[in-house]
Amino acid sequence: MENTQDSLDLNISTIVEYDDGEWIDKYGVKYSANRKKLIEVPSEIEFYNIKVGTCVICDDAFSRNLNISDNEHSEIEQITIPSSIIKIGNYAFSGCNKLKSIIIPDSVKIIGDGTFSFCENLTNIIIPNSVISIGHFTFRGCIKLETFFIPHSVKLLENNPFIDCVKLEEISVSENNEYYKSIDGVLYDNSIKTIISYPLGKREERFNLPATVCKIGDSAFYNVRFSYIKILFGLLEIGDSAFFGCNNLKIINIPNSVTKIGESSFCNCNNLSTIFISESIKIIPKDAFLFCRELKKIELPYSLVEIGESAFGSCSSLTSFEIPDTTKTVGEAAFYGCYNLKYIDIPDSVTFFGEFAFQDCSDSLNIYISSRNKYLRNRLNESGYGHLIS
Predict the structure, then answer these.
(1) Which residues pair with 181 in a beta bridge?
(2) Does residue 65 share a domain with residue 138?
(3) pLDDT tens per residue across span 132-162
(4) Are 69 and 213 in a shared domain?
(5) Is 314 part of any domain?
(6) Is this model's pTM higher than 0.85 or not?
(7) Model confidence over 105-134: pLDDT tens digits?
(8) Buried-exposed string 22-39: b where 16+ CB fall within 10 A, e elsewhere
(9) Same domain for 215 and 323?
(10) Residue 101 bridge partners (DSSP)
């Protein structure tokens, strides 16, 4: 049973606030005035013991002044976390490239978003049985992490915490965990209705999605290497960025049971050439097929009412496109950069057409649009894209 002091400590924010005040130790490490919060550790420190009695490691504590995109990293190699720590904040250790292992005490209950992201030499991390929540992208880019164990205490995993963990081959889960389950190293919710994370280090060429799965979670297959996935009727939803960067996928068939696909769901699938979309889909969302440069064939359902912003942007192998006559909205830059597009049929049902829809398309693009649709003809005439054909 959680004691009263732990409950109070869980209310301490990992965000640095004005009222925290500050106290700086002899190493230049900054704490809140009451020493409850570790606020900032200078990037040149190599070894450090966090003070006993500290409850929270604040957001960006070891990465606050680093520009990780410019290869700036903390020098920390070894850190001792006392058993008084309850929460580790967002991106607290992000970019700590020299950190190879870390021991998290069994007092810790919450690990934030991106906490250990881009710790490129981290090979070993043990999550204690006290942890109940692990945030978004917590281990993103931990390129030497090969296995990961989720203890029975974890109740909440935010999306896929393991994006770009290129050597991760297996995610295992305690048999006593009531919320999550692992099958062949792949992470699901306990009922096997949602797939959460397919490890990037798995080498299988083909994957059969279990028949029980109703949802593919956000980023579940982010950058994975398989070339074929079998999806059975019964799947209802494909999450945001679910297949982002799946460069070996060439064809995919979305069954008619699917009613929703998320933003960027197939973005950057560079070799995807053919896709069959569920007849239950009403919206192709923003960036859904952005940068699918080999996409040549796509069959849109007659349930479709909206094509989102940049949905087919830079699909440079598309040569023709037919918009179903149920569609009402075509978003901004929907076909931006489709420079081999020669023909597109826009039905009378379309009442809104976003700006830059055909930016950087071929000068020889023929746009078929009825003379009855004066609004769209005027808009497209003003834009100067392609040749209007009635």
Answers:
(1) 188
(2) yes
(3) 999 999 999 999 999 999 999 999 998 899 9
(4) no
(5) no
(6) yes
(7) 999 999 999 999 999 999 989 999 999 999
(8) eeeeeeebbbbeeebbbb
(9) no
(10) 124
